[in-house]
Amino acid sequence: MYNFSIPMALMDYVxxxxxxxxxxxxxxxxxxxxxAGAYALLAAGMINVFAAGFLKATWKLLxxxxxxxxxxxxxxxxxxxxxxxxxxxxxxxxxxxxxRRSAALAVAPPxxxxxxxxxxxMVAGLGAVCAxxxxxxxxxxxxxxxxxxxxxxxxxxxxxxxxxxxxxSALVNWIEQGINCVGQGLLLGGVLALHKAGLADMQxx
Length: 205
What we know:
Shape: elongated
Distance between the termini: 52 Å
CATH topology: Rhopdopsin 7-helix transmembrane proteins
Strand content: under 5%
Number of domains: 1
Helix content: over 70%
Number of helices: 7
Structural class: mainly alpha
Order of helices and strands: HHHHHHH
Number of strands: 0
Largest sheet: none
Radius of gyration: 17 Å
CATH class: Mainly Alpha
Protein backbone atom coordinates (compact mmCIF):
# COMPACT_ATOMS: atom_id res chain seq x y z
CA MET A 1 0.00 0.00 0.00
CA TYR A 2 1.21 3.47 -0.91
CA ASN A 3 0.67 6.34 1.50
CA PHE A 4 -0.44 8.96 -1.05
CA SER A 5 -2.72 11.93 -0.40
CA ILE A 6 -4.53 13.95 -3.04
CA PRO A 7 -2.45 17.13 -2.36
CA MET A 8 0.70 15.03 -2.74
CA ALA A 9 -0.56 13.60 -6.02
CA LEU A 10 -1.48 17.05 -7.35
CA MET A 11 1.97 18.30 -6.36
CA ASP A 12 3.41 15.66 -8.67
CA TYR A 13 2.07 17.60 -11.66
CA VAL A 14 4.12 20.71 -10.80
CA UNK A 15 7.56 19.46 -11.98
CA UNK A 16 5.86 17.88 -15.00
CA UNK A 17 4.42 21.27 -15.97
CA UNK A 18 7.80 22.93 -15.33
CA UNK A 19 9.47 20.45 -17.68
CA UNK A 20 6.70 20.82 -20.27
CA UNK A 21 7.08 24.61 -20.28
CA UNK A 22 10.87 24.31 -20.62
CA UNK A 23 10.45 21.82 -23.49
CA UNK A 24 8.01 24.07 -25.39
CA UNK A 25 10.28 27.13 -25.05
CA UNK A 26 13.37 25.17 -26.10
CA UNK A 27 11.67 23.54 -29.09
CA UNK A 28 10.27 26.89 -30.27
CA UNK A 29 13.66 28.57 -29.99
CA UNK A 30 15.44 25.78 -31.88
CA UNK A 31 12.80 25.37 -34.59
CA UNK A 32 14.25 26.31 -37.94
CA UNK A 33 17.81 26.27 -36.62
CA UNK A 34 18.36 22.57 -35.99
CA UNK A 35 18.74 19.88 -38.62
CA ALA A 36 15.49 18.02 -39.17
CA GLY A 37 16.77 14.71 -37.79
CA ALA A 38 18.22 16.22 -34.64
CA TYR A 39 15.11 18.31 -34.02
CA ALA A 40 12.85 15.28 -34.47
CA LEU A 41 14.90 13.33 -31.92
CA LEU A 42 14.78 16.21 -29.46
CA ALA A 43 11.02 16.68 -29.88
CA ALA A 44 10.30 12.96 -29.57
CA GLY A 45 12.45 12.73 -26.46
CA MET A 46 10.83 15.72 -24.78
CA ILE A 47 7.36 14.35 -25.52
CA ASN A 48 8.30 10.98 -24.05
CA VAL A 49 9.68 12.54 -20.86
CA PHE A 50 6.61 14.75 -20.42
CA ALA A 51 4.26 11.83 -21.07
CA ALA A 52 6.11 9.64 -18.55
CA GLY A 53 5.82 12.23 -15.80
CA PHE A 54 2.20 13.07 -16.61
CA LEU A 55 1.12 9.41 -16.63
CA LYS A 56 2.84 8.67 -13.33
CA ALA A 57 1.27 11.74 -11.71
CA THR A 58 -2.11 10.60 -13.02
CA TRP A 59 -1.56 7.11 -11.58
CA LYS A 60 -0.73 8.65 -8.22
CA LEU A 61 -3.82 10.87 -8.31
CA LEU A 62 -6.12 7.97 -9.21
CA UNK A 63 -4.58 5.92 -6.41
CA UNK A 64 -4.83 8.71 -3.84
CA UNK A 65 -8.45 9.42 -4.78
CA UNK A 66 -9.34 5.76 -4.33
CA UNK A 67 -10.46 5.42 -7.95
CA UNK A 68 -8.15 2.57 -8.94
CA UNK A 69 -4.57 1.36 -8.95
CA UNK A 70 -3.78 1.76 -12.66
CA UNK A 71 -0.38 0.10 -12.24
CA UNK A 72 0.43 0.20 -15.96
CA UNK A 73 0.77 3.99 -15.82
CA UNK A 74 3.38 3.65 -13.09
CA UNK A 75 5.16 0.80 -14.87
CA UNK A 76 5.54 2.91 -18.02
CA UNK A 77 7.40 5.67 -16.20
CA UNK A 78 10.97 4.33 -16.13
CA UNK A 79 11.26 2.95 -19.69
CA UNK A 80 9.36 5.87 -21.23
CA UNK A 81 11.33 8.56 -19.40
CA UNK A 82 14.72 6.90 -19.84
CA UNK A 83 14.18 6.48 -23.59
CA UNK A 84 12.90 10.05 -23.76
CA UNK A 85 16.01 11.50 -22.13
CA UNK A 86 18.23 9.36 -24.35
CA UNK A 87 16.50 10.63 -27.51
CA UNK A 88 16.48 14.23 -26.26
CA UNK A 89 20.18 14.00 -25.40
CA UNK A 90 21.03 12.57 -28.83
CA UNK A 91 18.92 15.25 -30.50
CA UNK A 92 20.59 18.10 -28.61
CA UNK A 93 24.02 16.69 -29.40
CA UNK A 94 22.97 16.79 -33.06
CA UNK A 95 21.75 20.38 -32.69
CA UNK A 96 24.91 21.59 -31.00
CA UNK A 97 27.23 19.71 -33.36
CA UNK A 98 25.23 20.68 -36.44
CA UNK A 99 24.91 17.08 -37.53
CA ARG A 100 22.90 16.36 -40.67
CA ARG A 101 22.27 12.71 -40.00
CA SER A 102 21.31 12.68 -36.35
CA ALA A 103 18.25 10.61 -37.15
CA ALA A 104 20.55 7.62 -37.52
CA LEU A 105 20.85 7.67 -33.74
CA ALA A 106 17.16 6.89 -33.30
CA VAL A 107 17.54 3.14 -33.24
CA ALA A 108 15.36 0.93 -31.09
CA PRO A 109 17.23 -0.15 -27.97
CA PRO A 110 17.39 -3.83 -27.15
CA UNK A 111 14.86 -5.09 -24.62
CA UNK A 112 16.18 -5.86 -21.14
CA UNK A 113 14.40 -7.30 -18.14
CA UNK A 114 16.23 -5.27 -15.50
CA UNK A 115 15.90 -1.60 -14.64
CA UNK A 116 19.62 -0.72 -14.55
CA UNK A 117 19.79 -0.22 -18.33
CA UNK A 118 16.94 2.29 -18.11
CA UNK A 119 18.66 4.15 -15.29
CA UNK A 120 21.89 4.31 -17.32
CA UNK A 121 19.95 5.55 -20.35
CA MET A 122 18.28 8.22 -18.23
CA VAL A 123 21.52 9.44 -16.67
CA ALA A 124 23.31 9.47 -20.03
CA GLY A 125 20.44 11.23 -21.80
CA LEU A 126 19.82 13.79 -19.08
CA GLY A 127 23.55 14.41 -18.76
CA ALA A 128 23.74 15.04 -22.51
CA VAL A 129 20.76 17.41 -22.36
CA CYS A 130 22.26 19.48 -19.53
CA ALA A 131 25.73 19.44 -21.11
CA UNK A 132 24.41 20.60 -24.49
CA UNK A 133 22.31 23.34 -22.92
CA UNK A 134 25.44 24.44 -21.07
CA UNK A 135 27.33 24.58 -24.38
CA UNK A 136 24.57 26.75 -25.84
CA UNK A 137 24.80 29.02 -22.79
CA UNK A 138 28.55 29.33 -23.31
CA UNK A 139 28.07 30.17 -27.00
CA UNK A 140 25.67 32.92 -25.97
CA UNK A 141 28.32 34.18 -23.51
CA UNK A 142 25.98 33.54 -20.60
CA UNK A 143 28.11 31.18 -18.57
CA UNK A 144 26.19 31.87 -15.38
CA UNK A 145 23.24 30.01 -16.86
CA UNK A 146 25.32 26.81 -16.75
CA UNK A 147 24.80 26.76 -12.99
CA UNK A 148 21.07 26.21 -13.55
CA UNK A 149 21.68 23.11 -15.67
CA UNK A 150 24.38 21.72 -13.39
CA UNK A 151 22.14 22.04 -10.34
CA UNK A 152 19.17 20.61 -12.26
CA UNK A 153 21.26 17.56 -13.19
CA UNK A 154 22.41 17.18 -9.58
CA UNK A 155 18.80 17.35 -8.38
CA UNK A 156 17.90 14.60 -10.85
CA UNK A 157 20.70 12.43 -9.49
CA UNK A 158 19.30 13.04 -6.00
CA UNK A 159 15.90 11.97 -7.32
CA UNK A 160 17.50 8.75 -8.54
CA UNK A 161 18.85 8.11 -5.06
CA UNK A 162 15.52 8.90 -3.43
CA UNK A 163 13.72 6.50 -5.78
CA UNK A 164 15.75 3.68 -4.24
CA UNK A 165 14.25 4.44 -0.84
CA UNK A 166 10.89 3.28 0.52
CA UNK A 167 8.42 4.46 -2.13
CA UNK A 168 5.44 3.71 0.12
CA SER A 169 6.50 6.34 2.68
CA ALA A 170 4.68 9.67 2.56
CA LEU A 171 7.78 11.50 3.82
CA VAL A 172 9.97 10.01 1.09
CA ASN A 173 7.41 10.96 -1.56
CA TRP A 174 7.19 14.56 -0.31
CA ILE A 175 11.00 14.83 -0.34
CA GLU A 176 11.10 13.36 -3.86
CA GLN A 177 8.51 15.85 -5.07
CA GLY A 178 10.35 18.75 -3.47
CA ILE A 179 13.63 17.78 -5.13
CA ASN A 180 11.89 17.21 -8.46
CA CYS A 181 10.16 20.60 -8.31
CA VAL A 182 13.48 22.30 -7.61
CA GLY A 183 15.26 20.37 -10.37
CA GLN A 184 12.64 21.02 -13.04
CA GLY A 185 12.24 24.61 -11.87
CA LEU A 186 15.98 25.11 -12.38
CA LEU A 187 15.72 23.55 -15.85
CA LEU A 188 12.84 25.88 -16.72
CA GLY A 189 14.75 28.87 -15.32
CA GLY A 190 17.81 27.97 -17.38
CA VAL A 191 15.81 27.54 -20.58
CA LEU A 192 14.02 30.85 -19.97
CA ALA A 193 17.41 32.51 -19.47
CA LEU A 194 18.63 31.02 -22.77
CA HIS A 195 15.46 32.28 -24.45
CA LYS A 196 16.01 35.81 -23.13
CA ALA A 197 19.66 35.65 -24.17
CA GLY A 198 18.58 35.14 -27.78
CA LEU A 199 18.72 31.38 -28.35
CA ALA A 200 16.05 31.65 -31.06
CA ASP A 201 18.30 33.98 -33.06
CA MET A 202 21.49 31.98 -32.69
CA GLN A 203 22.45 30.05 -35.80
CA UNK A 204 23.35 26.39 -35.27
CA UNK A 205 26.98 25.77 -36.13
